[in-house]
Design goal:
The chain is α+β, with helices and mostly antiparallel strands. 51% of the residues lie in helices and 10% in strands. The two termini are 35 Å apart.
């Protein structure tokens, strides 16, 4: 099935169906890429491969597919700027085919007992490896099992029908959702057993689950331009190497998210979604800039700034309720606030003022006059919020804890 420039294989496609789909789409991808292939032509084969690798690594967001496995044609990949290893490989094969460079698809498995492929990349017949997902040019994460599919020029040009290869191996996606520890391994981050235990505990902690969800919601809504700032940094980091400012900042944020039990791939998805939206939440934007400038907002200020941007409704600081939202939602948002406020504060500090330059429109329920009057001294001890002054925050944090625990316990069952 086609959706724009994306071919949806089918829900829960088995592994051999995915392999056939990848190979079947390459002739169309090759024709489509004919007009752009020369952009990647180098003085020799190695330079050509490096240009393809650099484009994918620096411009395309890695986004793993879930149950709905999809393959993007080159135009779809370049339009959406996101895809997984399947789409990366189709693009690479299409460019190489147009430039007359013989190559093969590499199907790889990293399971010591199961040869079912979970990853795909491209290698030229002379041995140059192009795997932008792995992230190192002319290098590969050593598979336990791998097999090759030669993509000769006559086959790619559509002179022969695609052959059926592989076998039915159950429902195992190629480029299927990558876990947090797999992300770390792919990026050369070696986690100790104690680090894995700590991250694993954060992953299932109800407070952390709710906190991560709220942070992602803020980013997806582009509250205060949060996603715009993160996307600006993410783009800048891709043209740099370790030891350079943007690269180091982005890696720091990725590790902050990982250490709090999150999967950086989920963070990228939220950033991409939020960056396409107009920033709203003028108060949240103001707090971001103040935090980046050295001021430390208190939890109540973060709550007052965030909830209107997330829910799009007025927040009543006197009652601690969100107009039109159920009490359980309010309780979860408030109860997890110390967690997500700390997380946001850390990310904003890492971003710095250089990446928080945009302004934001007021969110529903925000009063511009009140925003301009709110302030406070260092350490977040200012007047910032009636909610903070009322003493209601500690009561809601204690009383809401039971509701939040109940909510997430039932959600997990």
């Amino acid at each position: 099935m086609r959706a724009g420039q994306t071919i949806l294989v089918k829900q829960n496609a088995n592994n051999s169906e995915l392999q056939r789909a990848i190979e079947a789409v390459i002739p169309a991808a090759t024709k489509q890429a004919a007009s752009i292939a020369d952009r990647y032509k180098g003085k020799n084969e190695a330079e050509t491969c490096k240009k393809i690798f650099d484009y994918l690594k620096n411009n395309i967001n890695y986004k793993a597919d879930g149950a709905n496995q999809a393959v993007r044609l080159p135009s779809g990949l370049m339009r959406t700027l996101q895809g997984d290893c399947k789409s990366y490989s189709v693009f690479t094969s299409a460019i190489l085919s147009n430039l007359g460079i013989p190559h093969k698809l590499v199907y790889a498995s990293y399971d010591p007992k199961d040869p079912t492929p979970t990853h795909i990349y491209v290698m030229t017949n002379s041995g140059c490896i192009i795997d932008a997902v792995y992230g190192k040019f002319n290098a590969e994460k050593k598979p336990t099992f791998k097999k090759y599919k030669n993509m000769n020029i006559s086959y790619i040009a559509g002179m022969n029908k695609p052959r059926t290869i592989g076998r039915s191996c159950g429902y195992s996606g190629i480029g299927a959702t990558e876990g947090a520890f797999e992300w770390a391994s792919r990026n050369g981050i070696n986690l100790s057993n104690s680090q894995k235990i700590t991250i694993g505990a954060q992953k299932v902690l109800p407070l952390a689950i709710g906190g991560r969800a709220f942070v992602r919601n803020l980013i997806q809504k582009n509250a205060g331009g949060f996603a715009t700032s993160l996307n600006k940094l993410m783009i800048a980091s891709r043209s740099q190497r370790q030891g350079e400012d943007a690269w180091d900042k982005m890696r720091s944020i990725e590790l902050q998210w990982l250490n709090k039990g999150g999967n950086p791939n989920e963070l990228y998805e939220s950033i991409s979604e939020g960056a396409s939206k107009t920033p709203t939440g003028a108060y949240f934007n103001k707090l971001m800039k103040m935090r980046a400038g050295g001021y430390t907002p208190n939890v109540a200020q973060w709550i007052a700034a965030a909830v209107s941007a997330v829910f799009g409704k007025k927040y009543n600081e006197s009652t601690g309720a969100i107009t039109g939202e159920p009490a359980s939602t309010t309780a979860v948002a408030v109860t997890t606030a110390p967690w997500w406020a700390t997380m946001i504060s850390g990310i904003v500090t890492t971003l710095g003022l250089a990446y928080i330059t945009q302004t934001a429109n007021p969110a529903p329920g925000e009063n511009v006059t009140d925003i301009n009057n709110q302030g406070g001294g260092q350490g977040g001890e200012g007047t910032g919020s009636k909610f903070a002054q009322s003493g209601l925050l500690p009561i809601l944090l204690i009383g809401g804890a039971a509701a939040a625990y109940y909510f997430y316990s039932n959600k997990k069952k």
